[in-house]
Amino acid sequence: MSLSVKNLISIADLSTEEIIAILDRADKMETIVKSGKPSKLLGGKILAALFYEPSTRTRLSFESAMARLGGSSITVADIGASSVAKGESLADTIRTIENYADVIVLRHPQEGAAQWSSEVARIPVINAGDGAGRHPTQTLLDLSVIRRSQGKLENLNIAMLGDLRFGRTVHSLSYAITRFTDRLYCISPEGLELPAEIAMDLREMGKEVIETTDLQKILPELDVLYVTRIQKERFPTPADYEKVSGIYRIDNELLKDVKPTLDILHPLPRVEEIAPEVDSTPYARYFIQMFHGVLVRMAILTMLLEA
Amino acid sequence: MATKKTESSKTTTEEKVNELLVKKITAGTVIDHITAGYALAVMQILGITGREGDIISIAMNVQSKRMKKKDIIKVEGRELTTDEINRIALVSPNATINIIRKYKIHKKTRIAVPDEIVGIVRCQNPSCITNNERGITSNFKVVGRKPVILRCSYCKRITGHDHIIEQLLGLC
Q: How far is A296 from chain B (nearest CA, A)?
């Protein structure tokens, strides 16, 4: 199955059937990865990774995915060393890079940058995070982990915790997971709530959005706890950041009454929101997420480029 | 019956008072039923500065049967285009447009808020690509009509009515 869209900018671009098809394809990619031999599915294809913001996992997993599929990657990781430093517009940069590659993976600090790039580019654009906006490939890998661990996506009790205002991963996840569930718990410090637009969208779709600051109360009901970092770089001043950082911290004491099948996910990097002692519990899924990141990105690349 | 007569008399009186404030025009456009206090914003959105040479008459906060208070703008010698009429909807979705020829109403149009607004206003989100990149035009889907509420097609954030007005008046 190929996708009905040329680009992947937002989860909203995908039908629920397409989301499931990506997850199914990702499962099949595991055979290629575990074989240790690169496939030739995307032999001769080139991926251009254009990262205006720091990234470890997203960039490397895209490059790894492309290599596993027999393709290759070119990367602009240090934007300060490119023509952008001379004042080149994003549109001109895209019009340049499209001549060197078959697909562009873009991370940019401004919301809507991937959308704009897709309007300019003649080749597919994949949004690898646009400011506090969206991060659809992260969400697809999150869904892949949840489905594998829980055996389903439907009717799970899911809570998102932390910075729900600036965290783009939770913005995309909230739209995706509510395709399968009718209720979403949102736990955040005051001032970092899920943006009103997203909460409004979900409620208009008939979904129940439960916003609270009390993690302990709902923790025993949860199947999935999605933790996010309070992002220092999104705050106007260090003082604003200090007011809310460290409010929530997951440790083994807090987890003593949870369901045995609870999954804790985190898009990483983490700072202090999950204690290292949790890493060795059966709840920790955040390092498995990295593996699924490669599988899901392999699936997306093949579905966008095979056609 | 008595009530109806009184209303009728009142309307006539209102019209006469309003006519004294803003006289009839030979040809051009009358923008009526503008939300009270928004005439200057409508001028701004139409790009009317007064330096174009057209005769412009403005009445603000005049009596209205339907709206209690309203603003009126009369522009002599200029007929607004459909696009210009639709843009007025951003600040005053209840307005009516009368195209005047030889002192008579040639065409009366109720404003229709378009489904999409291109250009005209900026996204309220300072981190939106439309506020940071050269050569990109703002683009909004209309998600509320009375009052008008816009959703950016790029960053998906809401730009509310108050912010639209402040922008058009050059206050932000």
A: 25
Helix, strand, or coil here: A208? strand
Both A148 and A61 in a single domain? no
Question: Are the CB atoms for B59 and B121 separated by under 8 Å?
Answer: no
Q: Are residues B42 and B101 in the same domain?
A: yes
A5 inside domain: no
* Torsion angle, alpha carbons of A210, A211, A212, A217, to 10: 20
In whole numbers, what is the pLDDT of chain A averaged over residues? 94
Contacts of A132 in chain B (CB under 8 A): 127
Ranking A70-74, A166-170, A222-226, B22-26 by mean pLDDT, the lowest is: B22-26
Please check whether residue B11 lies inside any domain of the structure. Answer: no
CB contact under 8 A, A110 and B135: no
Contact residues on chain B for A112, CB-CB shorter than 8 A: 128-130, 152-156
Domain count for chain A? 2
What pLDDT does B22 receive?
63
pLDDT at A218 over 80: yes
Q: What distance in Å separates residue B34's CA from the closest CA in chain A?
A: 29
Average of pLDDT values for A88-112?
A: 96
Whether residues A225 and A152 share a domain: the answer is yes
A130 contact residues in B (CB cutoff 8 A): 129, 155
B80 Cα to chain A: minimum distance (Å): 32
pLDDT at B7: 33
Give residue A226's pLDDT: 98
What pLDDT score does B4 carry?
38
Q: Which domain holds residue A268?
A: 136-289
Q: Is A53 on the interface with B (CB under 8 A)?
A: no
CA angle A243, A53, B132 (to 5 degrees): 90
Domain boundary among B110, B136, B155: B110
* DSSP3 helix / strand / coil % (chain B, rounded to 5): 25, 35, 40
pLDDT above 60 (res A24): yes
User: Measured between CA atoms, how close is B127 to chain A, in angstroms?
Assistant: 5
Q: What is the DSSP letter of A272?
A: S
H-run or E-run covering B2: helix B2-21
CATH at A173: 3.40.50.1370
Poorest-confidence range of A1-5, A124-128, A199-203, A235-239?
Answer: A235-239
Per the structure, the complete domain to which residue B78 belongs is given by 21-110
Whether B45 and B125 share a structural domain: no
Shared domain check, A170 and A237: yes
Tally of domains within chain B: 2
Q: Which of A89, A112, A131 sits opposite B152 (nearest CB)?
A: A112
pTM (predicted TM-score): 0.87
The mean pLDDT value for A44-61 works out to: 94
CB A280 within 8 A of CB A251: no
Same structural domain, B32 and B105: yes
Q: Is A196 on the interface with B (CB under 8 A)?
A: yes
Taking CA atoms, what residue in A is nearest to B125? A111
CA dist A118 and A131 (Å) reads 16
Q: What is the pLDDT of residue A62?
A: 98
